[in-house]
Amino acid sequence: MFWLIFFTLQAVCTSVAHAMQHYPAAWGHYDVCKSQIYTEEGLAWDYMACQPEATDMTKYLRVALDPPNITCGDPPETYCALENPYMCNNECDATTEELAHPPELMFDFEGRNPTTFWQSTSWKKYPKPLQVNITLSWNKTIELTDDIVLTFESGRPEQMVLEKSLDYGRTWTPYQFYATDCLDAFTMEPKTVNDLTQRTLLDIICTEDYSRGYVWKNDKTVRFEIKDRFALFAGPRLHNMASLYGQLDTTKNLRDFFTITDLRIRLLKPATGATMVDENNLSRYFYAISDIKVQGRCKCNLHANSCVFDKGKLGCECEHNTTGPDCSRCKKHYHGRAWSVGSYLPIPKGTANICIPSNHGPVRK
Ligand SMILES: *[C@@H]1O[C@H](CO)[C@@H](O)[C@H](O)[C@H]1NC(C)=O
Ligand SMILES: *[C@@H]1O[C@H](CO)[C@@H](O)[C@H](O)[C@H]1NC(C)=O
Ligand SMILES: *[C@@H]1O[C@H](CO)[C@@H](O)[C@H](O)[C@H]1NC(C)=O
Ligand SMILES: *[C@@H]1O[C@H](CO)[C@@H](O)[C@H](O)[C@H]1NC(C)=O
Ligand SMILES: *[C@@H]1O[C@H](CO)[C@@H](O)[C@H](O)[C@H]1NC(C)=O
């Protein structure tokens, strides 16, 4: 009985991790770049498409806030609870470690009691908007493999945009809009991820699913649903990853959709509770985030199965005689044919598309 419950829970909670990392061999692991085989001429290398394992990408990011001085505690401030203006025991003081709420606390270990979190200044300048950009940068292209999950310590924002960049922060595009009222905030019809189909997978939607702050106090998370989007091709429990990989192989837009170098959380309006903003007690309104989850893997164009963090920088350990942070070029003397991304097909080992020696180069076979 105990075991049954354990396994059931485990199955529900980690179905994606399993699907992504431990799917049956028939679907391909893509965790090996080459293996030795015996041929008539003796030992030879067999090359395969490969990619690094998915992991917690928050260990490798840089965080920047805009405005930079928006973190609470300088000068020290006392906050009241959103749902109870007489409960004012939340003190923020940047000079005292126990009372400070710096941005790093969004990425520290969860499960501490009390929770640690980043917190903004309060909405002192109401009705001037209280807006904050939180920018997460990897300085490396990465591929998302699981939902992005933000956990808010106080109410969830009433308006927010999640944006992404694919060019190291030069240009930004929205990933998803969040509001208590999508029409009012962004003149967009409210939708949910369940409204998406294979054809409309790349549509950018506004959702009202994650913005109710006051009534649903126990629901503290805001999600960007990667798994549900994968499921449009891979089936509800991601049992058909081959189908997803096949699509990723042939549709560059789809591959790029899940690929980022940076994320930006644009907090546009804090939770104000069920009533009007109480102008006499603006210390009830602020943003506080206790956790941000970003699961993914380095994008290595299927030419590396490992990615290392060295001197503050992520880089693929390129195989197949490719090079560059994303293995997106052929190594010197290996320009015998044009560089090409590896392919997930045919399942299960894919095609390595290795770089071959230049015809007239100094290196010969
Ligand atoms: C942040 O700095 C700007 C100018 O440097 C200033 O106008 C603003 O009041 C500061 N904000 C806070 C919350 O201290
Ligand atoms: C309003 O905020 C102050 C602190 O700024 C607090 O002392 C007070 O109890 C709060 N509540 C009300 C209802 O005024
Ligand atoms: C946040 O980023 C957006 C663009 O992504 C920019 O327009 C805005 O000025 C930035 N700063 C703030 C405080 O919102
Ligand atoms: C980003 O990585 C490149 C090398 O790929 C490096 O030259 C640059 O300094 C890095 N930028 C930051 C902000 O770390
Ligand atoms: C890459 O080049 C080296 C040196 O010539 C060679 O030993 C190796 O087998 C090559 N690898 C691939 C994947 O072609």
UniProtKB/TrEMBL annotation:
Domain Laminin N-terminal, by residue range, is 46-297
**What protein does this entry describe?**
Netrin-G1-like
Q: Which organism is it from?
A: Xyrichtys novacula (Pearly razorfish)
In the record, which residues are listed under signal peptide? 1-19
Keywords in alphabetical order: Disulfide bond, Glycoprotein, Laminin EGF-like domain, Repeat, Signal
Any single biological process term in GO: animal organ morphogenesis
